[in-house]
Write a structure and sequence with these properties.
Layout lengths: L2 E8 L5 E9 L2 E9 L5 E6 L5 E3 L5 E4 L8 E6 L5 E12 L2 E12 L3 E8 L3
Antiparallel strand pairs: 1-2, 2-3, 3-10, 4-9, 5-6, 6-7, 7-10, 8-9
Amino acid sequence: VATTFGAGYVSRKGIAHHRKISLFPNSLKVVDEVTGFNKKAELRWRLAPGEWELVEEGGGVKTSSQDFPGFVLSVSSNEPYVRCALKEGWESLHYLEKTPLTVLELATAVSCKLTTEIRWEN
């Protein structure tokens, strides 16, 4: 049994983003549907501090950190990606303070549905 929630918006220019989130006992599923944009849409997942590596062609990461045993994040799409990469980004937990963190960044050039699945061990 899952707990599910969804929300979305449409801009004045017709750009739309709708997100549906489903929480299961050992996983989280996030479905993002993006439409109406001109050049590209980007999905970014800011990852917890630690060592991350790409594990799949096209969108997935895992960590060897003991803080997150068995944690795997994977992204699939009904259309091809333009880019899938791990990049350095930032987080700001306090005003006037920022720290680096790893970001999984995916970009698409066409309207699509991106499905992120996050799995972990208890």
